[in-house]
Amino acid sequence: MAPTAATPSPSAVSLGVRLGYAVGSFCTANFSTIPGLLLLFYMTNVLAVPAALAGVVLFLPKAWDLVANTLVGRWSDRTVSRWGPRRPWLLAGAVVLPVSFALMFAGPPLTGAPAAVYVGLTFLAAATGYALYEVPYKAMPAEMTTDYHERTSLLQWRMVLIAISIAMSGILAPMIAGGTAGGYRTMGVVFGLVLLASMLASFFGTARAPFTGQQKSEGTLREQLAAARTSRPFMWLLGLSSAQTLAVGVMLAGSPYFAAYIIGDPKATTTLFAALVGPMLVTMPLWVWLARRLDKRGAMILSGTMFAGGGLLLLATPALGALYAHLCVMVVGIGYAGLQLLQYSMLADVIAHDGVVSGERRGGVFTGLWTAVENAVAALGATIYGWVLSAGGFLSSDPEHPVTQPESAHVAVMIGVTAVPALITLAGVLMTFRYDLTAARLAEAMAHAHPEQPAPLPRQDQTSPER
């Protein structure tokens, strides 16, 4: 992404660049999903770490993200290189994340608290590598085009590959892990290589990406953070996205327990994930169309409602069985597809709006704050589920010493994976009503910033051709 002069006119993004950017999703989706899905279960059921302590271990490294992500965002805003401001940081993340991810699941001969310390330290290193990559990666779509609906179309490809990535992490990772220390070790190495390949591919694949962002990045970090906090669209988007991310984090952490203790088949984790991500592969064009018809806020409200509704319907699983549970998860998956696409498209809009209004390049600061909060909230989801299990009297174990769970633990497993994430998602839906950055408002801002050129008209009824 060469640092050429910014242009206020819409920029088309070629198919090659779309795919080159989207392939980075094999990093972001796998790293976001696998620890959330398996790390709590790995600690409680393989390393014999008490559930409450395991939940804390999952959350504490994310506190570091509040510092690391904002610093990386600021550094990428100020970076000047022949590769552009963002792409050098993709390489920096590729040096750190894959190795630390593999070490996280290396399965040292430790149990209990010592094992928790080891996992916590390696998770901290992995989170640092992820920050180096993810923060600038998320800032890039806002700087590739100035068109409101083009960003949604651009990110559609990313969402398709995210679905494939989630399928990999949700289906292949549990199959490889297999509930043993050796299996988890193999899984860590395999997916560490996947992370490395996708990070390098996105670096090379975005070499020809257009750059329409601002050239200036002024002021201190404190001043820029203050500017981000005063952006009303950004703060409401951050709030509603955090609620959605927290709900997904709780549900992901609970999926293996739901499969093992409610459906009665630990291998059902694989088929449940297939039901979750399957809709993402086929509903992206639908959500792009709905974003045009209802605007992005209306489509976001619809997707959040579907996610919450599917979660509440899961409460009837003990009476209606495994097939019913999979159908409910498909409803959740349709809503989840919309949430994933729309929140990142709206983030790109917020960054673009700030750039137009301020005349500065501050996308890294925005995505740094976003990613720090997102990662902390996702980890908090596993922590919350761990606390729900602990409150229900869940008994930790290792494969050589299985235990029989009390009935209260089964109730905790069910409530934690259904009602808790559904209520959190509904809170996010309520916050979505306060988000007000529409296509018309963004076009108006661009018209004021560049009065010599007509603002691009928001296209509500047409679909951009794929490039």
From TrEMBL:
CDD domains to which the protein is assigned, alphabetical: MFS_MelB_like
Key word Transmembrane present: yes
One Pfam family from the record: MFS_2
Source lineage: Bacteria, Bacillati, Actinomycetota, Actinomycetes, Streptosporangiales
PANTHER family named in the record: MAJOR FACILITATOR SUPERFAMILY (MFS) PROFILE DOMAIN-CONTAINING PROTEIN, MAJOR FACILITATOR SUPERFAMILY DOMAIN-CONTAINING PROTEIN
This protein's record includes keyword Hydrolase: no
Cited Gene3D superfamilies: MFS general substrate transporter like domains
Protein name as annotated: MFS transporter
Annotated keywords: Membrane, Transmembrane, Transmembrane helix
